[in-house]
């Protein structure tokens, strides 16, 4: 058991009717694991109503006697026995379900995107700064083992010298270029805030900056190639065709200032396209070109290398320019993460880092609301002036 008292936690959005939701697949497995229970205790749920929260308590077999049910965000915020509020709702509900808790100085863990737009993200970050609560945002890439290994190669080991450029070709965000599952129909509505740009594109964009440092400047070129999107139900049957106003082809160029990792004006070129790649091509190919060598990461099937799956490669390739040899550098999940399903592994690492950082400066261990607000501002800048 931890020598510190357990963090008393309230989950927002753990639904009894959505057992495949992110809350149940990615958060609950860690929180109910022996390691998670040593540091955290679920003491409350907030859903759309008290009855819905009570149903979820029963569905997931949480202790009825000690798990309180809420249907009102303000009532949850007023509970003095909740230390950390964790939000897993659809993104357009993030702000309204956590702002009261942030305003009372509670600690919060909000999934990414932080809010439906940069304005609301900035407001949450500013309220949090004023009220003094700690925060963590679900940009898992910062704590993913593949990014940690990259940072070691680029930093302490200096395997390729200073970075002069980095390039990415990424496909995905959704499994198909023309079809969206009915339950994710809101991915076609930019105003909701959750879509392939803010999720698929942005998770990778954040990982790049977690590994190489914050970009000094960015410039976007975005397009909507397929505005008509077909919705399909869970059985794969056609539902209807809708119009999308979310870009499905995003190209971003950027530059870094000089740092211990990057040369002055080191460049980024990142191209993201919704849907499948050309047959035989990987879902993600990321190269980092340095003075002395080059690093390459290839993910055959998934955009979300911070989450992983059985087909995600467990190696990073390093090309040494002097010897012309290519070495595979292995990386892996920590032993305790391997006992969890893939979606819960990096989320578990965020919980671990948050618990271990009590009373300390965050440093680079995980993203806060202030970090997330900055990422939202970058996304807003990329889309500046664009109309579908």
Number of helices: 11
Instruction: Provide the gyration radius in Å.
Output: 21 Å
Instruction: Calculate the terminal CA-CA distance, rounded to whole Å.
Output: 54 Å
Helix content: 25-40%
Strand portion: 25-35%
Question: How would you state the average pLDDT, rounded?
Answer: 94
The ordered string of helix (H) and strand (E) elements is EHHEHEHEHEHEHEEHEEEEEEEEEHHH
Question: Which of globular, elongated, flat, extended, rod-shaped describes the shape?
Answer: globular
What composes the largest sheet? 8 strands, mixed
Looking at the structure, the CATH topology of the largest domain is Dihydrodipicolinate Reductase, domain 2
Q: In the CATH classification, which architecture of the largest domain applies?
A: 2-Layer Sandwich
Determine the structural class based on helices, strands and strand pairing: alpha/beta
Contiguous runs where pLDDT drops below 50 for at least 5 residues: none
How many β-strands, per DSSP?
Answer: 17
Spatial strand order of the main sheet: 9-12-13-7-14-15-16-17
Q: What is the total number of structural domains?
A: 2
Organism: Chaetomidium leptoderma
Domain Gfo/Idh/MocA-like oxidoreductase N-terminal: 8-138
Domain Gal80p-like C-terminal: 145-297
GO molecular function, one term: nucleotide binding
Compose a concise summary of this entry.
The protein has helices spanning 22-31, 34-39, 50-59, 73-77, 94-103, 118-131, 145-154, 196-212, 335-338, 342-356, 369-382; strands at residues 7-12, 40-46, 68-70, 84-87, 107-110, 135-137, 163-172, 179-181, 217-223, 228-232, 238-243, 249-256, 262-274, 284-290, 293-299, 315-320, 325-330. By secondary structure, it is an alpha/beta fold.
């Amino acid at each position: 058991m931890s020598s510190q008292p357990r963090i008393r936690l309230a989950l927002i959005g753990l639904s009894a009717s959505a057992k495949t939701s992110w809350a149940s697949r990615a958060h609950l497995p860690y929180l109910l694991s022996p390691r998670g229970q040593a540091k955290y205790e679920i003491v409350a749920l907030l859903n759309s109503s008290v009855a819905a929260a009570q149903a979820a308590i029963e569905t997931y077999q949480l202790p009825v006697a000690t798990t309180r049910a809420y249907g009102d965000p303000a009532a949850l915020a007023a509970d003095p026995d909740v230390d950390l509020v964790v939000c897993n709702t659809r993104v357009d509900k993030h702000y309204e379900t956590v702002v009261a808790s942030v305003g009372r100085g509670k600690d919060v863990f909000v999934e990414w995107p932080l809010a439906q737009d940069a304005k609301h993200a900035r407001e949450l970050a500013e309220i949090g700064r004023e009220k003094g609560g700690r925060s963590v945002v679900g940009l898992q890439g910062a704590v993913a083992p593949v990014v940690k290994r990259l940072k070691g190669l680029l930093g302490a080991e200096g395997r390729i010298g200073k970075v002069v450029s980095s390039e990415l070709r990424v496909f995905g965000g959704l499994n198909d270029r023309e079809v969206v599952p009915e339950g994710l129909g809101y991915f076609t509505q930019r105003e909701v805030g959750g879509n392939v740009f803010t999720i698929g594109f942005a998770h990778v964009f954040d990982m790049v900056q977690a590994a190489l440092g914050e970009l000094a400047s960015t410039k976007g070129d975005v397009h909507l190639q397929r505005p008509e999107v077909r919705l399909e139900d869970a059985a794969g049957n056609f539902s209807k065709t809708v119009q999308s106003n979310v870009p499905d082809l995003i190209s971003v160029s950027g530059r870094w200032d000089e740092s211990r990792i990057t040369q002055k004006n080191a460049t980024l070129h990142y191209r993201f396209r919704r849907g499948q790649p050309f047959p035989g091509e990987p879902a993600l190919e990321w190269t980092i070109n340095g003075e002395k060598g080059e690093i390459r990461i290839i993910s055959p099937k998934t955009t979300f290398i911070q989450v992983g799956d059985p087909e995600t490669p467990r190696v990073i390739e390093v090309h040494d320019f002097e010897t012309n040899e290519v070495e595979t550098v292995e990386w892996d999940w920590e032993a305790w993460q391997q006992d969890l399903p893939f979606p819960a592994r990096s989320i578990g690492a965020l919980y671990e880092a948050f618990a271990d950082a009590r009373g300390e400066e965050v440093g680079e261990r995980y993203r806060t609301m202030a970090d997330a607000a900055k990422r939202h501002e970058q996304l807003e800048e990329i889309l500046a002036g664009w109309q579908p």
